[in-house]
Amino acid sequence: MSDIKAFNQAANDCTDGEHQVQLALLEKLCVALETGADAANTSQLLNALIDYSEAHFMSEELLMRMKSYDDYEDHQDDHVHMLEVLRDLKAQLDSDPPTLLASQARAMLGFISQHIATRDKRLADHVRQGL
Predict the structure, then answer these.
(1) How many Cα atoms occupy the beta-carbon half-sphere of 72 within 13 Å?
(2) DSSP letters along the chain, please?
(3) How many Å apart are CA 55 and CA 30, to the nearest integer?
(4) How far apart, in whole angstroms, are the C-alpha atoms of residue 70 and residue 29?
(5) pLDDT at 77
(6) In this predicted structure, what is the pLDDT of residue 54?
(7) Is there a contact between 25 and 42 (Cβ–Cβ < 8 Å)?
(8) Which long-range contacts (CB under 8 A, 24 or more apart) does 41-50 make?
(9) Can you give the pTM of this predicted structure?
(10) What integer pLDDT is reported at residue 5 of this predicted model?
(11) Can you give the residue ranges of every domain in the chain?
(12) What is the mean pLDDT of each run of 10 residues along the chain (131 residues)?
């Protein structure tokens, strides 16, 4: 396997693993909000999700730039939107009812899942082809 193909496969594998961690953190947040878990633990979980998402999006955006990806701006707009929603959840955590936040978190889980299934899949195909 050529070095570039090995790099491309490793990049896809790493990104797929990061998506699984991100989805798992978001699912845990949804459950915590739905079950009325301890506010401090819920806040810690949300902070971990935001931190992880920031790092993941940064690495994914770097990969897109390295590969001269043609859908960079729209893809990045999704990342900005996701972080805005997560930060809004954080700001609301102390004042809004957990059930309202739980529905927002579930909606974000759906958005991120759709993003991974469409935009991230297209990016992975682009990287895999070595374009």
Answers:
(1) 14
(2) --HHHHHHHHHHHHHHHHHHHHHHHHHHHHHHHHHT--HHHHHHHHHHHHHHHHHHHHHHHHHHHHTT-TTHHHHHHHHHHHHHHHHHHHHHTTTS-HHHHHHHHHHHHHHHHHHIIIIIHHHHHHHHTT-
(3) 21
(4) 33
(5) 97
(6) 97
(7) no
(8) 42/93, 42/98, 43/90, 43/93, 46/86, 46/89, 46/90, 46/93, 47/90, 49/22, 49/25, 49/86, 50/83, 50/86, 50/87, 50/90
(9) 0.85
(10) 55
(11) 3-128
(12) 52 71 95 90 94 95 92 96 95 82 94 94 86 50
**Chain length of the chain:** 131
Closest Cα to residue 112, out of 130, 93, 85? 85
pLDDT of residue 97: 74
3-128 CATH, one of 3.30.230.10, 3.40.50.2300, 1.20.120.50, 3.40.190.10 = 1.20.120.50
Cα(109)–Cα(122) distance, rounded to whole angstroms?
19
Structure-block tokens of residue 101? 């936040």
CA distance 125 to 37: 39
